[in-house]
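Feature request, filed as a ticket because there's no other form

It would be nice if the structure record came with a short human-readable summary line next to the tokens. Right now we just get the raw output. Example of a typical job, pasted below so the devs can see what we mean:
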Amino acid sequence: MSSILTRRALGAALILVVSFAVAAVLAPQAAKAQGVPDPLRIATEGAYPPFNNVNSKGELVGFDVDIAKTICKAMRVKCKLVAQDWDGILPGLVANKYDAVIASMSITAERQQIVDFAGPYYSNYLRLVAPKGTAISSMADLDGRILGAQRATVAAQWAEDNIRGGEVKLYDTQTAAYSDLESGRVHVLVSDVYPAHDWLQTVSGYEFVGPRIDIDDKIGIAIRKGETDLKNALDKAIEQIRNNGEYKKVNEKYFPFDIY
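Raw output as currently delivered:
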């Protein structure tokens, strides 16, 4: 695939579509008073463990979900969480289906053309995952191999931008990518470090290979353009939960290290 829509950079086609949606939505809302909605409607993907997932009871769970609830508590507003497929998550935001997106979304210049961001509320980098004993020390070691990644992610963008001598195979969900790694249909997986770390705790025979891939990736809360009061309230809430220990409680529930 020559170009994809990624967590790090939305493709030109989606930017164009969403830009029209922004204009359509914001025009009639221009005279509305800015503020903080109550309840605050927050969308997450629900398919990106341990950050957001749906449990056996059909409930949204994960780091993003707990952070969203903690932020709402700090803002003293009710929190209404909804699941939304990744590819439609920003169009749904600008179409006013919800007020914010807390779904491990990277803050990028491309996305900032169509939405604003509060935060960041954590930082990210990439790692390669492969069967134990796989010798990967440089990009040349990926030549001739099939590299898997979740479609529409920073990992997929990195793979598309950097892999020349191997094949890149993209998946709609992270769990599908893990499944094909286990089946041998891909040789190596490139992923955000934290969900990969979480997955490695549940399987044997796999490990991180190669060096850390630092992409200076900051994860933020997407909101519609021009909603300054909401952005300020969200930024203040993030600072508050970092200072009062509530962020640390959520962080330690999922990770043995600070991901901020």
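Something like this underneath would help us a lot:
Residues 12-123+218-254 form a domain with the D-Maltodextrin-Binding Protein; domain 2 fold (CATH 3.40.190.10).
Helices lie at 12-29, 63-75, 89-94, 154-162, 174-183, 193-200, 228-244, 246-254.
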